[in-house]
Amino acid sequence: MALPEVATEDASPPSAIRAGSLQRVLGPLGVSLLTLSVLTPGASVLVAGVDVVHHAGTGAALAFLLGGLLTVIFTMSQAELGAAFPLAGGDYATVGNALGPRAGFIQFGLVLFGTPIFLALSAVGVSLYVRTLWPGLSGPGIAIAAVAASAMIAILNIRTGAKLTGTFLAIELGALVLLMVLGFAHPVQSLSILVTAPRAVVSGTLATPALGSLVLAIVAASYATAGAGQAVYFSEEMHDPKSVGRLVMIIALLTLTLEFLPVLGVVMGAQNLPVVLGAESPFIAFIAERGSRSIAILVTLGIIAALFNAIVSGLTCYGRFLYSTGRDRIWSGSINGALIRLHPRWGSPWIATLVLAVSAAACCVLPLNAIVPLVSFTTLAQWVPLSLACIAGRRSGATGTPGSYRSPLFPLPQALTLLVVAALTVLVWSDRVNGRPGVFAVIAVVVLSTLYHAFVLDRRAGGWALFSTPAEVGLPQ
């Protein structure tokens, strides 16, 4: 495949920057495997779920159920937009096409900020579980090495990547099934107690978790179950890109089921609650309590495989995101030209993927208890532009067209999303240590994105417009 031309002037029209076309080689199964590998139910439960358990204790299963149901409602807008605009730019391209370039650019800023932190979360998770087997190893060193190894796989042909990630996905799902079996085989807590009287380790003793802690747990669980919309990033490589909306909703419901049941099994089956709930890794503590050391080692290896798979798939997915930013001329001419280069053999945006890997590796020095709240609230904030864009798109006739995915009960899910995000923001703000930094981060990203759009992009000769439109990438209108 020939390399695309490189633009040297920012002021050139979008048509002057021609990215090589991504290859349409994926069907629904391939996209589903890649998407599930990106959002990785195993990593979501076993890494982000650690934060949920620490905040909500035995209420973690309820937090996952409520957070997951909220995510399903939130995802309806994302699915409708993705079906109307199946573009490799994902959310920023769909929002930009429905609501205008500035709104799309704010969404871009939120995704750009959260992506390397999201990838670092999985890498830090790798180090956490590797060090349960080999305690003397360096945590940041393991995390950075995991990102580097993942990047080498992520630049391969996407069909090869889908097969590899599918294998890893099967391993991580096996680990989740084992958690369910161990918990449901010998339940200790009743369902009614888990709902009406959750208990968490507070200052070293079992107590009822505070309302703020429960809210943070629901926000973290909503983040952990989110990600079905990442299928849209692969839509330019789908044989039937318009079907991506329905596929997104199927993946969202499947993710909720795959993550809720293992957490329910753990909180129902845990006997020594102070030890399990207060452990650095409650899930490993639960396995050690219920199973043999051999089983604990086996599950730990499965968890490591799941987390590694999440990094590989995340780099594959969001490498397309960075590729799209170059195509949309967001950066200077030379940077744009580099990001849109496709590998001559594998057809992947390899430079964009490696740039993303470097930024993710830099975030690996952050502690886990700082990463989860930060990325959770950033993800929550992204639902606001998506909901507004869905409303605007439906009113203009750009989304929800006959034969395409239509959000049911429109505009109730969109209105509910906006209300829930507003309410959760108020409650998260009340937590000065864990919640408020995430709110400040989102405000800063929105302000900086708005300023960059107004004073850099809008002031270019000829203005700035999204290249990522269905017409530009050859999709039917």
Describe this structure in words.
Helices cover about 70% and strands about 0% of the residues. It is built from 18 helices and two strands. It is mostly helical. The protein has a single domain, classed as Up-down Bundle (Amino acid/polyamine transporter I). The protein starts with about 25 loop residues before the first helix and ends in a 20-residue tail after the last helix. The radius of gyration is 22 Å and the shape is globular. A two-stranded antiparallel ribbon has the order 1-2.
User: Could you tell me how far the N terminus lies from the C terminus, measured between alpha carbons in angstroms?
Assistant: 27 Å
CATH topology: Amino acid/polyamine transporter I
Count of spatially separate domains: 1
CATH superfamily: Amino acid/polyamine transporter I
- Main sheet attributes: strand count, strand direction, barrel closure: 2 strands, antiparallel
Going by helix content, strand content and strand pairing, the class is mainly alpha
CATH class identity: Mainly Alpha
The pLDDT mean sits at 85
Largest sheet strand order: 1-2
Summarize the helix and strand pattern as letters.
HHHHHHHHEEHHHHHHHHHH
> What is the total tally of β strands?
2
Q: Any idea what the radius of gyration is?
A: 22 Å
In DSSP terms (H or I, runs of 4 or more residues), the helix count works out at: 18
